[in-house]
Design the sequence.
């Protein structure tokens, strides 16, 4: 089951990295509140930690629980930011994907730490 | 149709980046011919160009045809390397994924250049 | 001499990746023309190709001439964008760093291709 | 002083990312103990966390303390691995650079957490 969870977590990270990267372009085009520095930087943090977190799991790194932990934090922050604009379909989609990724990374982070 | 092709090419790049990264770990564990410097470095080149190529398409970058062109080259070289060990299931899988990615990146590279 | 040129080109790429990444934050904070989608995306392209180009040279990859070629293109475009706002010290600095990196990547790209 | 420490930490991360990436090529060429899967993967982990950690500080991310914390862990592990082969000049250099980076990342991680 651990293997199955990791497979799912890799998929969630790759989906989240992709949707957040799409969302950066979307927000920059929109401008205004969508393009505020803090918002774009939060999305950039999420893209980067998701990509890295996936890499560590795919590679079978011994410290993947640590990278999953940081990724969970970046995803939670990004979800909170996006939920503030949840009347916008792209932002709502992004928030959902971030929540899903945060949850599975959190799980990987705790289960590996207690292993 | 162009949009559909790009969507497919992004999927191929993300699949190729993931399979090549798995294959690096597999080859390092195997040792011997699998772990030769040239072979591992060719896989690392492929992982990196596929990840970057996906990023440029997801972001809708104006120079994605250029990054797809470099990615096609890295994928072709990686496919050739892996085909030399095609009696090994992981290497054969990797070669197939690299060929598929090389073809779609080549197509993106030519169609955008002539656009 | 080739080795010395590559060393210099790696340094130029790492400097350019760093200055462009700083400039993204600067531009997002500034807002307005600085934060236009096309401008930020051009900077993001430059950050990524410079980082990758450095990686390929540091690793001694056989296709580093190709990655240097793409990087030169991304740097030239970024320099042109930044030069439009050359009354701003950060943008002028960024333009200069991009020009320097474009030139040395161009040189690496041609010399290796003819080797 | 905080700003000065961060500047130094960025430099340490960029140096460590570069030296570890060089060391991967060196180790793969050497073969034998140098090219063992665990050793190469520890170096790859260190390259990636150092590059990311630098990115988060350059961008001025709010969660850079978290990424510095993970980076410190990856650097410590890499230093320990390299110290086992400290009769080899490249491995000794790599160990030193990893120790220096681990220390400054640890410092960034604690000071920001208590801020």
Sequence:
């Amino acid at each position: 089951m651990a293997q199955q969870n990791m497979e799912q977590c890799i998929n969630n990270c790759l989906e989240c990295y992709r949707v957040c990267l799409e969302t950066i372009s979307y927000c920059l085009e929109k401008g205004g509140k969508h393009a505020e520095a803090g918002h774009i930087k939060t999305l950039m943090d999420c893209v980067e930690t998701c990509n890295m977190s996936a890499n560590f799991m795919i590679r079978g790194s011994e410290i993947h629980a640590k990278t999953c932990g940081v990724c969970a934090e970046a995803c939670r922050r990004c979800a909170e930011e996006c939920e503030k604009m949840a009347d916008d379909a792209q932002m709502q989609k992004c928030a959902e994907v971030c929540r899903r990724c945060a949850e599975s990374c959190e799980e990987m982070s705790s289960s590996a730490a207690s292993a």
